[in-house]
Design goal:
230 residues, alpha+beta, four-stranded mixed β-sheet, 4 helices
């Protein structure tokens, strides 16, 4: 068998490869990265809260508004009724104690005992026991209206207002005229009681106020209108 023959150059080349391999060893593997891939930094956030829009007031925060009425309010062409004043008829008077003067009717007296009124009657002044007052008009009218007896004792005088349901609500003195305001209803016994009732109220008011004329309103209407038979 014939062995291959190596040339001197072949031997040298092989020897050189062995030496190089022994000095440097096998080729190093490809380097791997030990550094973690950089992470994406989150976008900065702001600590300030986003501005909020203030809600405009709604109907819930304000009282409901009633829809306008389509019906027109009724109007009246009648003049407003006079109202009684809140002040007394004679303001600023000092307190005093004195009898009150109350007027009653002498039927068929024909003006002998007092002023002639109505159906041939007379109006006669009577006095009460002393009363304490500052405004004499109120207690005088209230005393007259509070008397629920037709006959005034044994005097023969008559009170035609005894059945009426009236109350004094106010009065005012303007110059020499006293105006009184009443509320309620008259209950009279006949046609001749109309001038009698009016005279009793007017003369009692004039005596209390020191006036020379009187006006009487009942429920805001003049007494002549209230007692009219028309």
């Amino acid at each position: 068998m014939t062995r291959p023959r190596l040339s001197a150059f072949s031997v040298l080349t092989f020897s050189a490869l062995v030496i190089l391999t022994g000095c440097f060893g096998p080729p190093a593997p490809a380097p791997t990265s030990t550094t973690a891939a950089p992470t994406t930094t989150a976008a900065p956030t702001t600590n300030a809260a986003a501005p909020t829009t203030t809600a405009s007031p709604t109907a819930a925060t304000s009282p409901p508004v009633a829809p306008p009425s389509t019906a027109a309010a009724p109007t009246s062409s009648a003049p407003a009724s006079p109202q009684p004043p809140e002040e007394p008829a004679q303001p600023g008077l000092p307190e005093q104690v004195a009898p009150l003067t109350i007027y009653y009717v002498a039927v068929d007296d024909n003006g002998v005992s007092g002023p002639l009124i109505g159906c041939g009657d007379s109006l006669v002044a009577t006095t009460t026991a002393p009363v304490r007052f500052t405004d004499q008009v109120r207690p005088s009218i209230e005393t007259l209206l509070a008397n629920k007896s037709r006959d005034v004792g044994l005097s023969g005088l008559v009170n035609v207002l005894y059945q009426s349901n009236l109350s004094y609500t106010g009065g005012e003195l303007t110059g020499s005229t006293i105006t009184i305001y009443l509320a309620g209803q008259f209950m009279l016994g006949g046609v001749c009681d109309i001038p009698r009732a009016k005279a009793q109220l007017e003369y009692t008011a004039m005596a209390a106020a020191g006036a020379t004329s009187a006006q009487v309103f009942v429920n805001g209407r003049p007494i002549d209108e209230v007692l009219s038979l028309k």
